[in-house]
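Our consortium's second objective concerns turning raw sequence data into structural hypotheses that experimental partners can test. To show how far this objective has progressed, the report includes one record in full. It was chosen at random from the queue rather than selected for favorable results. The single chain below, 278 residues long, was entered without modification.
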Amino acid sequence: MAADALSPNERFLLDFHRSHPGATSEFFGPARTPEGGDSYDRLAALVPEGDDAVVLDLACGDGYLLERIGQRRGSRVRRIGLDLSADELAAAARRLGPDVLLLNERAQAISLPPASVDVVVSHMALMLMDDPATVIAGIHRVLRPGGVFSAIVDGGSAPSGGLACFVASMGRTLRTADRAFLSLNHPIVMSREGLLAHLGEAAGFSEARVEELVVSRREPPARLWELMCLTYDVVQLSPAEVESTRRDFLDAVEALRDAEGLVGCSVGLRQFTARKQA
């Protein structure tokens, strides 16, 4: 894939995931909802049982969600993963083996035939994609009539616990350097109203809905800092700024340790789901 055909955001994401394949699943895989489930299983549960079911994971990363789907639905379900990053797809191939089709493509130009997929899922990626209206139109094209699209994205309630401390520490470092947080998320996807408008009847979808959820995990402070280093904003810091942010963060979370010495970390998410009109 030619680098000059990519946007600055896409080039940034490629560079990040070249250095950090599997970062998303490492952060969100162990995170749990208050009910005890997780964000990946919410998407895997949408895949129907049956020999002919086909599921596409858009921006599949290292294949974590596709692995979950295989564990939940068995080998009868045909699984397809698409990702911009060849490095993430290499990790997915090692995880999933030869039975899963992996496509190194942009989400704006899905090569699959029309009406060939029963379910399209996407975990923590849709908000990072350029031109989400084109992405959603492509999803509609490849879905069979009655097929389901569901995506989990940033949003919902504000971060709390250790993640809130990290955001505050990062903010202090960036203000000192006269810089701002990265702006990678597309506003259409970050707005409930914006994305629901793109999943309505005019776009060929029905039953569009949005659900708010919170996922949390508890970790020792040092491990929590390692997880924070998997976020995009840390990349823009110099080594000295990383160290300054680390010390500030560890000082801040010390008061949040529980009886086991662990610190909670919670993030709000949204799940958008719609069905292609029959």
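The partners drew two points from this record. The domain at 3-158+184-215+267-276 is CATH 3.40.50.150 (Rossmann fold). The mean pLDDT is 93. Both points have been shared with the crystallography group to help prioritize constructs.
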